[in-house]
Amino acid sequence: MPDIAHILPFMFIALGLVVTPGPNMIYLISRSLSQGPKAGLISLGGVAVGFLFYMVCAALGITALLMAVPFAYDTLRLCGAMYLLYMAWQAIKPGGRSPFQVRDLPKDGPRKLFTMGLVTNLLNPKTAVLYLSLLPQFIVPAQGHVLMQSLVLGCAQITVSMTVNALIAISAGYIAVFLAGRPLWMTIQRWLMATVLSGLAVRMLLDGRK
């Protein structure tokens, strides 16, 4: 089992990533704005199943990889740092569009809402890289039970992601109205998130494997 010293930093990174606009957030917000919070929450159920799929696949693969390849950990750590820097750039790059801008979507039933949430997450490279590049650096093979550590950390990430996304889906309309007349707030949020992600990436590169 991973200790609290590994779970909390991982959850902090998971929080930083979930509040950074990506395919999942954009779809959930768009669905909530066009069809209501309930539709957004149904779609979120599909997103959750996608997270579970990636978590199990990554946990099994990471377990085998760390046991078979001595330098696999450092390779994945570097990939994770590069990914965080990429996400930081995505947050502040010119011409970025706010996920809270209304998008016209057709009215869909619960089954299609759930399926679209699932497909959106399965096709989201952000999800795959999260598990394959960031998760391994918080695993300590010396403590044993690599698979269990992977599953516990994965469940922690899913809990953070589902909680934040549910709140966003429910309050998307209010947030959109608030930000529509306050572009400075959006700019501050983007730069703050870029700073946090960049700081985490630098720390990963400097610390190396403990």
Features:
8 helices; 210 residues
Structure description:
This protein is an all-alpha fold. It has one domain. It is built from eight helices and no strands. The protein has helices at residues 4-18, 23-35, 37-68, 72-92, 110-122, 125-134, 146-180, 183-207. α1 (4-18) runs parallel beside α7 (146-180), α3 packs parallel to α5 and α4 (72-92) runs antiparallel to α8. The chain is globular. The relative contact order is 0.23. The mean pLDDT is 75.
Element-by-element helix/strand order: HHHHHHHH
Number of helical segments with 4 or more residues: 8
> What do the pLDDT scores average to?
75
Largest sheet: none
Q: Outline, from the CA principal axes? A: globular
Q: What is the domain tally?
A: 1
**What percent of residues adopt helix (DSSP H or I)?**
over 70%
Oligomer: single chain
Report strand %. Answer: under 5%
How far the N terminus sits from the C terminus, by CA atoms, comes to: 17 Å
Q: Work out the radius of gyration.
A: 18 Å
Low-confidence parts: none
SSE blueprint:
Elements: H1 4-18, H2 23-35, H3 37-68, H4 72-92, H5 110-122, H6 125-134, H7 146-180, H8 183-207
Helix pairs in contact: 1-7, 2-3, 2-7, 3-5, 3-6, 3-7, 4-6, 4-8
Give a short overview.
By secondary structure, the protein is an all-alpha fold. It has helices at residues 4-18, 23-35, 37-68, 72-92, 110-122, 125-134, 146-180, 183-207. The mean pLDDT is 75.
